[in-house]
Amino acid sequence: MPDPLAHSPDMITTIRPNKMPTLWWLCPWAYARTLHMSANAVKAYADRLDDILDIQRSLIDEQAAEIRLLKARVADQNDAIIRGTAITPDAYPHE
Fold first, then answer.
1. Is residue 71 part of a domain?
2. What is the count of structural domains for the chain?
3. Is the model's pTM score more than 0.90?
4. Residue 95: predicted pLDDT
5. Is residue 56 part of a domain?
6. If you placed Cys at 41, which of 6, 14, 23, 85 could pair as Cys (CB 3.0 to 4.6 Å)?
7. Interior CA angle at 45 toward 18 and 35, to 5°?
């Protein structure tokens, strides 16, 4: 079974899955407070993961657009070669 605390070291102080407050049955509010702190830490961790996923989606979309552009340029160059028209180079060689 994977270690539940292996992903984020800053959550170790907040989330302890098998740790209950001392004498929690005498003061159930301490246990409720511990559960509340753990739930808030998990929510903050999930929010960070959502932000990371949004960034990854935008990067993938940008890469896909660039790939489409490059494929279109290659197709245009292939068409120009087949038609026999001159391909204008991007830079002129030095003489």
1. yes
2. 1
3. no
4. 53
5. yes
6. 14
7. 35
